[in-house]
């Protein structure tokens, strides 16, 4: 029996896992505080001036409780802080601390190096084509019925 070809979502998940594993291992090797993939995702969804936990949860595609747990772990690590939201007396903005900004910048630089390794392995043209394909607007998700 032959194994069915992996579909595009499976391939994208595997590629994301490759980047995540490389990033976290590289950051640990550099002596940075260990974080989880979920905690790292907070930084990817965070605005420099601050973002509410509800908005972080929406951007990350997780529950508010899950985002809240990741945020508070990062606050305990000294990477994030809470500040009053000028738009709402009931909300708090989550934003990076000076240390969090430094770590995030280092993570971005590390991802650029990892992307360079990928380019060495599969070619710069392939990486460029992949980047271009993934930045083309796909429109609203389709609702298709299988016959």
What would you say this structure looks like, in words?
- The chain is mainly α and 147 residues long.
- The protein has a single domain, classed as Arc Repressor Mutant, subunit A.
- The chain is built from 6 helices and 2 strands, in the order H-H-H-H-E-E-H-H.
- Strands 1-2 form a two-stranded antiparallel sheet.
- A hairpin with a 2-residue loop joins strand 1 and strand 2.
- The chain is globular.
How are the SSEs placed, and which strands pair?
Layout: H1 8-29, H2 37-45, H3 53-60, H4 64-76, E1 80-85, E2 88-96, H5 98-122, H6 124-135
Antiparallel strand pairs: 1-2
What proportion of the residues is helical, as a percent range? 55-70%
Could you give a short account of the major beta sheet?
A: 2 strands, antiparallel
User: CATH homologous superfamily, by name?
Assistant: Winged helix-like DNA-binding domain superfamily/Winged helix DNA-binding domain
Number of continuous helical runs: 6
Whole-number average pLDDT? 94
CATH architecture label name: Orthogonal Bundle
Overall morphology? globular
Fraction of residues in β-strands: 5-15%
CATH topology: Arc Repressor Mutant, subunit A
Radius of gyration: 18 Å
Low-pLDDT stretches are none
Total domain units: 1
Between the first and last Cα atoms, what is the distance in angstroms? Answer: 25 Å
Secondary-structure element order, as H and E? HHHHEEHH
Summarize, please.
This protein has 147 residues and is mainly alpha-helical. It is 61% helix and 10% strand.
List its salient traits.
147 residues, mainly alpha, Arc Repressor Mutant, subunit A, 10% strand, globular
